[in-house]
Amino acid sequence: xxxxxxxxxxxxFRPVAQFLLDHGVSPDAVTIVGALxxxxxxxxxxxxxxxxxxxxxxxxxxxxxxLDGTMARLANRVGPWGAFLDxxxxxxxxxxxxxxxxxxxVRHADASVAMWGIVAALACLAIGGVVPxxxxxxxxxxxxxxVGIAERGERLVISLTTAGLxxxxxxxxxxxxxxxxxxxxxxxxVVQRMAAVRRQTRAEASSGDVTEPTAPAEPDExx
Length: 223
Prior knowledge:
By secondary structure, the protein is mostly helical. It has 9 helices and no strands.
């Protein structure tokens, strides 16, 4: 679903992408500015208690994924560097979001849910980082691990939206529960990707074929 929305935004942003290219703005610049903006928003707005503003600003800035990809295609500059930069900065943004939420739980949450929320946010931070790693490592070895119930887009939409609703008055415990569910879904996704690679290695061994490790063409991270 998120991939389809991103493709739709890519078409919508085509005039903007062309305008930026015509004025000398590179796709890499858009990627970096969008990521840095999201990091600043996450580490400033969440710790200061602005949950709604954080969700809106970060949501808008993460759309730069669609804009920079459209710019790269229009300029015929799609390649491994852009994919690597985008994927790496995605990890930085994800870390900033859940770190910002952790600080929010420390500074603003009710005492009854604060510790549970801190653990949940840190779990999302830790396990969420393993999800894309499992896929990238599998692809570097020549296997396909593009499976799982909790890809990055869904995790971000759910966490940002829930936090924003808490900022509008939803009970704080709802965010805690959702973060635990996201951490669990991320763990399931890692297991699914490990199982997918295990099946492929077994099939390979039974057929006598050996897959040579190859450098991964990092996907436009839906991981």
